[in-house]
UniProtKB/TrEMBL annotation:
Keyword Ligase (UniProt): no
Homology family: Belongs to the NmrA-type oxidoreductase family.
PANTHER family with a match to the protein in the record: NITROGEN METABOLITE REPRESSION PROTEIN NMRA FAMILY MEMBER, NMRA LIKE REDOX SENSOR 1-RELATED
Short name of one Pfam family: NmrA
InterPro entries in the record: NAD(P)-bd_dom_sf, NmrA-like, NmrA-like_oxidored
Record's keyword terms, sorted: NADP
Protein name as it appears in the record: NmrA-like domain-containing protein
UniProt domain NmrA-like: residue ranges: 4-263
Record bears the keyword Glycosyltransferase: no
Amino acid sequence: MSETKTVLVTGATGGQGGAVARRLLDGGWAVRALVRDPDGQGAGELRALGAEPVTGDLDDPRSLRAAVRGVHGVFSVQPADLTDPDPEAEVRRGRNVADAAEAAGVAHLVYSSVGAVGRGSGVAHFETKAEIEAYIDALGVPATVLRPVFFMENWLSMMPRARNGERVASIALDPGTPLQMIALADIGRIAADAFGRPAEFVGRKIEIAGDELTVRQIAEAFTSADGVPTRFERQPIEELRAAAGEVANMFDWFDRKGYGADVAALRERYPRLLTFEAWLRGNR
Ligand SMILES: NC(=O)c1ccc[n+]([C@@H]2O[C@H](COP(=O)([O-])OP(=O)(O)OC[C@H]3O[C@@H](n4cnc5c(N)ncnc54)[C@H](OP(=O)(O)O)[C@@H]3O)[C@@H](O)[C@H]2O)c1
């Protein structure tokens, strides 16, 4: 890169934004990190990595307009609380970022959506992303849409600790259901690549995954990672629906349809994409 270009990264204290910020910094980009609390630990960690935290809020368009001033690109991601869904807030926040990017005339917006978009999932926090994608299309801002699948990092909270010499997790999926997964680091890898190769990426919408394993194979991967026998017990979907309706809708869709990234093509393009086994090795 001849001149240092700056990317505004939203959600930079979180999983995806954090991975994108790290990867961009490693690649020699300047990173402006949108943070709500400039004195918080997350902002401090980003500053230590070399990013410039800027205070802003996805609900405050004025703060977003100030944050995008002078940047080359914007990475946009919005939180989704599945235990207390607020689809309207997610759409509003996604639009706010797109509006700010468009008003500032940024060269490249990379929006992180979700793999299910365009397949009529009916899952609220997937349909929000379809709406944000459509809004970005209508604005005409130069954009790339990345559609990540299930994060490998979800297992950090979903897999219980071993008890009595084994791990038993309950999941509302059939043991034979394939689940596509991606490591956060690879979202960072692909987003940074998109910013680096605008001619190839602007205008594209790409579903991204690093691996695909059945639920049974996921248990086997845990077992062989550290030798602790691991198995899943099937949770009835009605039970999950009673406890967490939005999560149940998503798992029901995983069981019936599921993500559809072209993992083989992605791996050919990015040979270092983490398999689930490799990700587990780094997270034991
Ligand atoms: N988990 C999966 O398998 C999966 C798969 C595909 C897509 N997704 C999607 O990924 C998205 C979440 O991404 P993530 O997991 O990277 O997020 P995350 O780790 O939950 O982090 C959320 C980030 O958003 C920031 N934030 C929250 N409210 C804000 C506001 N009002 N203004 C400014 N910043 C705000 C948080 O900052 P603070 O530090 O200030 O809180 C944090 O940096 C969701 O839309 C989800 O549907 C998830």
